[in-house]
Specification:
single chain, mainly beta, Pnp Oxidase, Chain A, two-stranded antiparallel sheet, binds flavin mononucleotide
């Protein structure tokens, strides 16, 4: 079937609705960021794209640090609020009801309600028109203990993560596969010699 041609635009979907923290512990800000992703596994490098007019832009440029806090459906109101109010007009931790917790390496706090936080140090800033891309090394990962399984592995399936798709927030739901399952050999139900 022929596709409908649309105007070129930023329509990647779904994307995270990350709650990015910046500043110092006592004077911290939260900005909701959808334009984020991974650039490299080893070393672990990520990015966030931020408009220069955002209050957080100046803070991150000055401190060279931020944390990407993953978000859950339970956090949706707070996350939306941090994406429509500016830190110039008030303390978003107070406004949103989210709580601070100390990071391990950086000065900015992490969000206590977030199941997983990536502590980042900026290595480069690139301008691309409307947004500046802060390319950053992930210097530490902090996970809530309830999402670490008995083997020490992160299990985010139970975390209630949410995604952002074309202006709307969605709860991540049903698992429909796992990495490599399409080519995995099927296990026999009753291997020979066993009952
Ligand atoms: C779901 C969502 C995603 C957003 N993604 C981005 C983004 O990727 N980059 C950006 O500059 N602003 C983004 N924004 C807008 C900022 O979060 C918003 O302007 C915020 O009020 C800026 O806060 P600040 O002035 O305290 O830095 C997003 C907002 C929402 C609600």
């Amino acid at each position: 079937m022929e596709k409908v041609k649309l105007t070129a635009g930023a329509l990647l979907s779904p994307v995270p609705a990350a709650a990015v923290t910046c500043g110092s512990f006592d004077s911290a800000n939260i900005i909701t960021i959808a334009w984020t992703g991974m650039i490299s596994t080893r070393p672990p490098v990520t990015y966030i794209s931020v408009r220069p007019e955002r209050h957080s832009h100046g803070i991150i440029k000055e401190t060279g640090e931020f944390a990407v806090n993953l978000t859950t459906s339970e956090m949706v109101r707070a996350v939306d609020l941090c994406g429509v109010k500016s830190g110039r007009d008030g303390d978003k931790f107070t406004l949103s009801g989210l709580h601070k917790t100390e990071a391990s390496v950086i000065s900015a706090p992490l969000i206590a309600e977030s199941p997983l936080s990536l502590e980042c140090r900026v290595r480069e800033i690139k301008s691309f028109g409307s947004h500046d891309m802060f390319i950053a090394d992930i210097v530490c990962v902090d996970a809530s203990p309830e999402f670490i399984d008995e083997n020490g592995k992160i299990d985010l399936a139970r975390a209630g993560l949410m995604a952002y798709s074309h202006g709307e927030y969605f709860a991540l739901g049903k698992k429909v596969g796992h990495f490599g399952f399409s080519v995995a050999k099927k296990r026999r139900k009753h291997p020979r010699g066993r009952k």
